[in-house]
């Protein structure tokens, strides 16, 4: 990694009850479960031996709490961004994936455009939002190590965007508190070098 490259570590939040129930959370502010709190402690312990200069997170409490535990363990500042939120699924939030598939069989297909009345953020809108905010953060902390705590759909949409579909949504599944690492190069390009590592959970 060159001197001016920026290392971004992306962490998905810990488990919630809705995760366990396979219920779509989206922009709903669902708290961490007891298991999720333990996972947040475990990922914080995993990251403790690494150098990170700042932690950024979504404002939704499942990501915010995970990030606060990591920032406290690392002894660094924690900043919050609304644009790091999960994709908004509008009227579909609270439903299970199977309930959504029953009602809208093509909903999860690549390129599917949700019905306008559902108030769902499109996948393209999510990809653009993810790239925009991660780029802003990377440029602000050029040459540093930045940790971002967000959501599975958000992180995968970002990976999908920077890899032109080779990785991310439809390809990778990201477990709770999984670690994904990318580099923002000095020329503005991105390099992906780890996706969805949960070794800290397997060790406990």
Would you kindly provide a written description of the structure presented here, covering whatever features stand out?
It comes from Tumebacillus lacus. This is Histidine phosphatase family protein. InterPro entries: His_Pase_superF_clade-1, His_PPase_superfam, PG/BPGM_mutase_AS, PGM_Phosphatase. By secondary structure, the protein is of the alpha/beta class. The chain has a single domain (6-202), classed as Phosphoglycerate mutase-like (Rossmann fold, 3-Layer(aba) Sandwich). It is 35% helix and 17% strand. The chain is built from 7 helices and 6 strands. It has helices at 17-20, 34-47, 61-74, 97-103, 123-140, 152-162, 199-202; strands at 6-12, 54-57, 78-80, 145-150, 179-184, 190-197. It has a 6-stranded mixed beta sheet with strand order 3-2-4-1-5-6. Strand 5 and strand 6 (190-197) form a beta hairpin. Helix 2 (34-47) runs parallel beside helix 3 (61-74) and helix 5 (123-140) crosses helix 6 (152-162). The longest helix is centred in the middle third of the chain and has 18 residues, at 123-140. It is globular and about 45 Å long. The chain starts with 5 loop residues before the first strand and ends with a helix. The mean pLDDT is 94.
> What is the approximate shape?
globular
Name the beta content range: 15-25%
- What would you give as the CATH superfamily? Phosphoglycerate mutase-like
Care to count the β-strands? Answer: 6
Main-sheet strand order equals: 3-2-4-1-5-6
Q: What is the number of helices?
A: 7
Average predicted confidence as pLDDT: 94
Order of helices and strands: EHHEHEHHEHEEH
The CATH architecture can be named as 3-Layer(aba) Sandwich
CATH topology: Rossmann fold
Main beta sheet: strand number and arrangement?
Answer: 6 strands, mixed
């Amino acid at each position: 990694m060159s001197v001016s490259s920026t290392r971004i570590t992306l962490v998905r939040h810990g488990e919630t009850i809705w995760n366990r129930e396979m219920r779509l959370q989206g922009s709903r502010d669902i708290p961490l479960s007891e298991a999720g709190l333990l996972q947040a402690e475990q990922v914080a312990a995993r990251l403790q031996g690494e150098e990170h200069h700042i932690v950024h997170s979504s404002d939704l409490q499942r990501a915010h709490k995970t990030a606060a535990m990591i920032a406290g363990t690392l002894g660094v500042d924690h900043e919050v961004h609304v644009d790091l939120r999960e994709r908004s699924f509008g009227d579909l939030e609270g439903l299970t994936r199977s309930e959504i598939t029953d009602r809208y069989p093509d909903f999860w297909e690549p390129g599917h455009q949700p019905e306008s009345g559902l108030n769902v953020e499109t996948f393209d809108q999510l990809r653009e939002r993810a790239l925009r905010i991660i780029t802003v953060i990377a440029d602000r902390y050029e040459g540093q190590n930045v940790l971002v705590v967000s959501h599975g759909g958000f992180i995968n949409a970002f990976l999908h965007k920077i890899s032109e579909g080779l990785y991310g949504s439809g390809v990778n599944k990201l477990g709770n508190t999984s670690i994904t690492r990318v580099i923002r190069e000095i020329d503005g390009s991105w390099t992906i070098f780890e996706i969805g590592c949960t070794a800290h959970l397997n060790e406990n």
